[in-house]
Design goal:
heterodimer; A: mainly beta; five-stranded antiparallel sheet; globular; B: mainly beta; four-stranded antiparallel sheet; 11 strands; 55% strand
């Protein structure tokens, strides 16, 4: 099956620093999504990307859909304590939808005040 | 208003029991999913339903049986529970099946089998 390689696995940063994480795949995806999961909650959609090369922002978050359609990155600028959580990349392939989302293994973001 | 809701939030039960988890969405979506998140936080699709029809059935033991009484509900029934079934189960929904429809997740049900 398809796999997404997400890195880094965890990040320890200082409040105010910028954060960067990425996902790569050996196969093509037609959409890349970035979710955040807080403890005891479900994943919450942050950014959705639908076109190769697309760069999309949501407040302090910026994500890009790689030109090869095999990778995506997420940047968070000027991190704040509430950014703590697990960030997942996810991708989907089919137009007809005969697949669900394939998830990366997550990046644990820990912010030291 | 909660968009995707699940009950119960926590479920503790013994091996061999049968249990159900319920999911409801009030988004008017046509497609609903069940995902399993293991102890290492890895999320994996289990089932997908579109307009009450099963679309995806990944390699999930047949002890797991989803049931969709209507488009707004997708329940997960688990027979003969095993220790390895302990996980967090998430329901999700989207407007349609295709990749350009975003999926929204419920808060999860933490199942513990003892």
């Amino acid at each position: 099956g398809q796999q997404l390689n997400q890195s880094p696995q965890s990040m320890f940063i200082q409040e105010g620093e910028d954060v960067s994480m990425n996902c790569t795949s050996s196969s093509i995806f037609n959409t890349w999504l970035w979710y955040k999961q807080d403890p005891g909650e479900g994943p919450v959609l942050l950014i959705a990307l639908y076109k190769a090369g697309e760069l999309t922002s949501n407040g302090r978050l910026t994500a890009q859909f790689g030109i090869t359609r095999k990778d995506s990155f997420l940047n968070i600028s000027a991190s704040i304590p509430s950014d703590v959580g697990i960030y997942f990349c996810a991708g989907q392939v089919s137009v007809g939808g005969a697949d669900g989302l394939t998830f990366g293994k997550g990046t644990h973001l820990i912010i030291q005040p | 208003d909660t968009a995707v809701s699940q009950t119960p939030k926590y479920l503790v039960t013994q091996m061999g029991n049968d249990k159900s988890i319920k999911c409801e969405q009030n988004l008017g979506h046509d497609t609903m999913y069940w995902y399993k998140q293991d102890s290492k936080k890895f999320l994996k699709i289990m089932f997908s339903y579109n307009n009450k029809e099963l679309i995806i059935n990944e390699t999930v033991p047949n002890r797991f049986s989803p049931k969709s009484p209507d488009k707004a509900h997708l329940n997960l029934h688990i027979n003969s529970l095993e220790l390895g079934d302990s996980a967090v189960y998430f329901c999700a929904s989207s407007q349609g099946l295709a990749y350009f429809y975003e999926q929204y997740f419920g808060p999860g049900t933490r199942l513990t089998v003892t």
